[in-house]
C-alpha cells in the first residue's frame, strides 16, 4: 500500500510540475504542515482551543494557505526572461491553476498517509502491548523489544522488497 501511495503521489507531482513549474511545486509543497494540521483537526487528533499553541498553529495554517493561494492565483510582472529555444517547453500560465491543484492533491495524499500511520501504528502497537502485559507481565513484554528489529527486517524483506546488508554502509 505504501508503494502504491508513493507512486500515485509521484505521478501527480510530475503531472503538476509539467503544468506549472518546479518553483511553483516547491512553494506549494510548503503547505504540507498546514494540510496535516487540518487533517488532524478533522480526525480529532488535534484540538483547537484558546491556548497560545493552538492559536499559533491555526494562525500559521491560515497564513500558509493564503500565501499559497496568492502565489498560485496571482502572476505578477516577469522579473527574469529568457529567449532560449527551450522557452517552448515551459508551461503556459493558464495551466498553472490546474497544475497547482494536481500538486496540492499529491501533497494532501501524503499528509493523509502521515496521519493514518500515526493512528494505525498506535492502535496495533497498544493492542499488542496490552495483550502481552495481561498474559505475562511487564518484564516479559520488555524482554522482546529487541526482537522488533528482526521482525521489521523480515517484514521489510518479505513485503516491501528491502535488501539485507551486513552493516549500514556499503564498501
Automatic annotation (TrEMBL):
Membrane topology annotation: Multi-pass membrane protein
Transmembrane helix is among the record's keywords: yes
Subcellular localization, as worded in the UniProt entry: Membrane
Keyword vocabulary terms for this entry: Membrane, Transmembrane, Transmembrane helix
Molecular function (Gene Ontology), one example: transmembrane transporter activity
GO cellular component: membrane
Transmembrane segments: 23-43, 55-76, 96-119, 139-161
Name of protein: WAT1-related protein
Organism expressing this protein natively: Ambrosia artemisiifolia
Amino acid at each position: 500500500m505504501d508503494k502504491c501511495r508513493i507512486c500515485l503521489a509521484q505521478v501527480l507531482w510530475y503531472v503538476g510540475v509539467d503544468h506549472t513549474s518546479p518553483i511553483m511545486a516547491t512553494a506549494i509543497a510548503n503547505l504540507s504542515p498546514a494540510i496535516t494540521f487540518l487533517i488532524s483537526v478533522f480526525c480529532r487528533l488535534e484540538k483547537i482551543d484558546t491556548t497560545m499553541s493552538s492559536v499559533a498553529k491555526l494562525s500559521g495554517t491560515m497564513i500558509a494557505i493564503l500565501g499559497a493561494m496568492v502565489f498560485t492565483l496571482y502572476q505578477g510582472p516577469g522579473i527574469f526572461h529568457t529567449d532560449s529555444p527551450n522557452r517552448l517547453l515551459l508551461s503556459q500560465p493558464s495551466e498553472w491553476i490546474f497544475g497547482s491543484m494536481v500538486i496540492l492533491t499529491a501533497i494532501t495524499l501524503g499528509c493523509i498517509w502521515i496521519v493514518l500511520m500515526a493512528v494505525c501504528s498506535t492502535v496495533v502497537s497498544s493492542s499488542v502491548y496490552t495483550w502481552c502485559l495481561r498474559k505475562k507481565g511487564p518484564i516479559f513484554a520488555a524482554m522482546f523489544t529487541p526482537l522488533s528489529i528482526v521482525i521489521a527486517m523480515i517484514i521489510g524483506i518479505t513485503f516491501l522488497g528491502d535488501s539485507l546488508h551486513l552493516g549500514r554502509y556499503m564498501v
